Amino acid sequence: MFLLHCPHCGETRDEEEFSNAGEAYIPRPLQPEAVDDATWGDYVFMRRNTKGWFWEQWQHTAAIAPRTSPWCSCA
Amino acid sequence: MRGQNYSLWSLLKHGFKNHQTWEPAWERVALKPSYDVVIVGGGGHGLATAYYLAKNHPQVGRIAVLEKGYLGGGNTARNTTIVRSNYLWDESAAIYEHSLKLWEGLTEDLNFNVMFSQRGVFNLGHTLQDMRDIERRVNANALQGIDAHVLNAREVKEKIPQLDCSRSRRYPVLGASWQPRAGIAHHDAVARGFARAASRLGVDLIEGCEVTGMDISGGKIRGLQTNLGMVKTERVGCVAAGHSSVLAKMAGLRMPLESHPLQAFVSESMQRVIDTVIMSNAVHGYLSQSDKGELVIGAGIDSYLGYGQRGSPHVIEHTAAAIIELFPQFSRVRMNRQWGGIVDVTPDACPIISKTAVQGLFFNCGWGTGGFKATPGSGHVFADMLAQGEPNALARSFSVDRFHTGHLIDEHGAAGVAH
């Protein structure tokens, strides 16, 4: 069970109040209609799925914007 | 085929000698410097691949299975052993049905009792939409030639008297889909049976051998670096479940996979109370009783990415609540053990059985939360791929290319409960 800090609420709250939104900082192609299928498929589906430290997103139920936090998947 | 056969006669023969004369089930061998085919991952799927490769394609030559821990010690030992094939789409139903047919003859084929018990699986429906989905899936199964039935609440109650089917529950049972040929098998027996059978056909099973790098030049795989030294090979099959992305990274590839912890737990041993398998998408729990008498209960996946084989306590709490919703009388059963396995989940809840951009490097992964049932089928089709370099008819739809072409096979409905 994790306790995560929500910068919007200013509180550290239980994991169950958050939704995990996966790997962070995956850049969306600037012109989606201009890229080929391989590039778009890579953006939508392919993941690094890192074993170790990486940035991931958590959305708090009461917050507006997702929060990005570092997380080690080995833990 | 080398080694001894298991039979009533051999049991008597060795019994008279106080069982001191049995040969080891599989041979322990040292890693050789080169192989024709190397399979990375010695779980059920990897061992099944090795067995079917050696059995159906002996011309491929020398085969090795590299396992970083011990054989069958990963997800093969961490699941809830449910076997069924009542999936929705033709592509996935075909491969799971192929697997179920192999399960039906597996004990004889391997000369090893895998304790496959066709006790049926019920997928409960709790809402009108659940029941519509169940009817759609059962109708699809009828067209695919897979045994499946829609049952109403009264019929479910007749078959599972312990289940609380009263309308007063928060999530009343309205009916179920039922696959009588489905069931459970023994996880360790499956791994050991395949390991023994592969070893008897001359496959080298190397435990404690972790792949740490890949030698790739000119777009071709040339060998693997391991903690036990270099292995030269021009054909590699990766069957590493939750760690597939780690292997893909060594080859400079990305896979459409996310690894999550999936938990399960078992109770203390009890008298037999449940003689079938019960799954529920809506309350999210599934339950069967092992031959030892333990209730085997499966939970959902944790939402975050993780490689730690644990998971969060609140997931267990939700699952326990779901089971008590279905079976209030189990509220005082004590739980004995809990564990987590790392499942590699694809965006469409279907596996990846595929060639890659690197020539000679193949992946069989993405079985997600329901790979155990596919063990023999997965090994069978992947062996064909490793031997021929091309997917067979059953595997063709599961290429990783589908994430670029858009031909996804959306099985989230039928694979809905993580199991």
List keywords for this structure.
heterodimer; A: 75 residues; mainly beta; Folate-binding fold; three-stranded antiparallel β-sheet; two-stranded antiparallel sheet; 1 helix; elongated; B: 419 residues; alpha/beta; FAD/NAD(P)-binding domain; D-Amino Acid Oxidase, Chain A, domain 2; 2 domains; eight-stranded mixed β-sheet; six-stranded mixed β-sheet; globular
Structure description:
The complex is a heterodimer of chains A (75) and B (419). Chain A is 12% helix and 37% strand. Chain A is mainly beta and 75 residues long. Chain A has a single domain (3-72), classed as Folate-binding fold (2-Layer Sandwich), CATH 3.30.2270. Chain B has 419 residues and is an alpha/beta fold. Chain B is built from eleven helices and 19 strands. In chain B, strand 1, helix 2 (44-56) and strand 2 (63-66) form a beta-alpha-beta unit. In chain B, helix 2 runs parallel beside helix 7 and helix 3 crosses helix 10 (375-388). The longest helix of chain B has 17 residues, at 128-144. The interface between A and B is medium-sized, with 27 and 25 residues.
Global mean pLDDT of chain B: 95
The level 1 CATH classification of the largest domain in chain B is Alpha Beta
What is Rg of chain B? 21 Å
Query: Total strand count of chain A, please?
Result: 5
What's the structural domain tally of chain A?
Answer: 1
Strand order across the largest sheet of chain A: 3-4-5
CATH A-level architecture of chain A? 2-Layer Sandwich
Uncertain runs of chain B: none
Treating each run of at least 4 consecutive H or I residues as one helix, how many helices of chain A?
1
